[in-house]
Design the sequence.
């Protein structure tokens, strides 16, 4: 995919698989809804989650956003980089607002109260992308 296609794809309503390193070197892999903070992919999660523990110890992160039910429909983006743990309440709420808008619909005053309450126990993670890899099998025209 071109850079513009990657940007458009990532801004679609997808689930992101997030991989971080456990203390013993194994991979912790979970599916997350995500949003953006100042144009950079980000997610929020509970402050005591395994992801946060792992990223505080080792900030390396790999994320995968993919779609397609058959080979000719496969499309995806892998993001490799660093996961920066964010503790600033304003940034965390901004991530929560973006996630809400992407997955539940228009953000409004009623949603703001819920995001603030939910965000009280959460931290943010900004994905500082060092490398992106993408693929789009719909461009193959049925030939592999």
Sequence:
């Amino acid at each position: 995919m071109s850079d513009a296609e990657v940007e458009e794809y990532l801004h679609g309503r997808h689930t992101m698989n997030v991989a971080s390193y456990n203390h013993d070197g194994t991979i912790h892999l979970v599916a997350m809804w995500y949003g953006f903070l100042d144009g950079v992919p980000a997610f929020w999660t509970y402050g005591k989650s395994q992801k946060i523990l792992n990223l505080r110890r080792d900030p390396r992160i790999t994320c995968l956003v993919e779609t397609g039910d058959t080979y000719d429909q496969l499309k995806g983006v892998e993001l490799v980089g660093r996961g920066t743990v964010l503790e600033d309440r304003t940034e965390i709420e901004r991530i929560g607002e973006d996630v809400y808008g992407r997955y539940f619909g228009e953000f409004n005053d009623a949603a703001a109260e819920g995001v603030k309450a939910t965000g009280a126990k959460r931290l943010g993670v900004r994905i500082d992308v060092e490398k992106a890899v993408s693929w789009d099998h719909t461009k193959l025209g049925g030939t592999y």
User: Anything to note?
Assistant: The helical segments are 3-10, 50-57, 89-103, 109-119.
